Amino acid sequence: MVTVSEIAKNKIIELRQKDGLAEDYAIRVGVQGGGCSGLMYDLQFDATQQPTDHVVEDKGIKILVDRKSLLYLAGTELDFSDGLNGKGFQFKNPNASRTCGCGESFAV
């Protein structure tokens, strides 16, 4: 299961409104090969649910995860930081054995 922090929830709602997207747009969270650690996170708005998607709702945010990515993302919390150490969404992934300095890629 993938969850969102309260701060991430508020940022998702803000960005969805800023982009003029309807409330039925979900967050699609996925994993792709690449990055300096071997796997990269992918995060985007999506209104189309695929038949093989795992669908979760947390704090009123609908989250879509494809079957392959779910293996890497189980237990992950999506957070948001706007502090001095960087601004953006962060993945708190208990499955990651290491992450790169930018936090956008990981290895298991």
UniProtKB/TrEMBL annotation:
Core domain location: 2-104
Source species taxonomy: Bacteria, Pseudomonadati, Bacteroidota, Cytophagia, Cytophagales
Name of this chain's protein: HesB/IscA family protein
Record-linked InterPro entries: ATAP, ATAP_core_dom, FeS_cluster_insertion_CS, HesB-like_dom_sf, IscA_plant_cyanobact
Superkingdom assignment: Bacteria
Pfam families: Fe-S_biosyn
